[in-house]
Amino acid sequence: MVLLNVEDYRREARRRLPRFVFDYLDGGSEDEVALTENRAAFDRMKLTPRPLTDVSIRDQSVEWFGQRLSLPLILAPTGLNGLFCRNGDIALAKAAARLRIPFVLSTASNNSIEEVASAADGDRWFQLYVMHRGFADQLVDRALAAGFGHLVLTVDVPVSGKRDRDERNGFVMPFRLRPKTLADMVLHPRWLWQVGRHGAPAMGNMLTAGADPNTQAALLSRKMDASFNWDDLKRLRDRWTRRLLIKGIMHPDDAARAVSLGVDAVVVSNHGGRQLDAAAAPISILPDFNRVGAPLVLDSGIRRGSDVVKAVSLGATAVMIGRAALYGLAVGGEEGVVDVVRLLQAEIDRTQALLGLPRLDAQGQAA
């Protein structure tokens, strides 16, 4: 089968994965209004071609703190990647290194900070969930020691979104196999041989740290520290000595306040439609953030290269891709991730040519 775009990879991932695994990857919260709107907002946005421009050479690089990223793409932090591919976090990190784009390792990864640092070179970032203050400090120190260059603090999970698909499938933590789930696994022998026979993937950062049972349970059930506030952000800024991003910001005043406290960049995100189902689509509010005075990263809903061009045209320096990369991971492991990103890269390039846009980070193409 020839896979021509991200949607083709999505359909193939759906075919290969058990229902409960695919729904965990693909689903959103409640009625999935935010999930649907993330895509619809991109579809409504149009671009204005400007022909008779020399586009024989096209530059897709963007500036990031004084250096050039070859592509405005970042592999987003995603949890439980070991469900889609054996050692999925390592596969993602290796793919990112080959593509020369950043990879963000999640707190909820199945491979630990140290395993990923040992297995993959490249531009590695670490994403932090705060469940327990002391354990969060340990994770920050470990990421520093392992050479992770950026910290991405996720702030939009004071409580976990209600994900109806997961509840219907019985995919709650700690996970318990049901007869229906076992039957579904048997119907997917390739996944069962490559992933399922090894058992439920462990939370690598928990095992390495020897986290207490309460902290492990909090991560498994996505129970975060709902008391984390601006003062705690200041304390984290002091502890982390490298670049700090804040992810899950949806109001420009919050972004400005974070920057005033020393945050280096802002990720405008509604968590891929997996948290507040009534949240706006990030692409629809992105122009409101241009006065913040810090680099912006757009997250949630990217499926085409033209989506990336739209985000950059509205002020984003780069975008994060989550599900798109995971569809590739589920289908082909490391190679599948590389293929998906290269498909997006080709679509970005074609969109630039058709727009008359030699440099991707030139502004003013949105209509």
TrEMBL record:
Domain FMN hydroxy acid dehydrogenase, first and last residues per copy: 1-367
Entry cofactors: FMN
Binding site for FMN: 77-79, 106, 127, 154, 247, 269, 299-303, 322-323
Active site: 271 (proton acceptor)
One record GO biological process: aerobic respiration
Family per record: Belongs to the FMN-dependent alpha-hydroxy acid dehydrogenase family.
Protein name according to UniProt: Mandelate dehydrogenase
Species of provenance: Rhizobium deserti
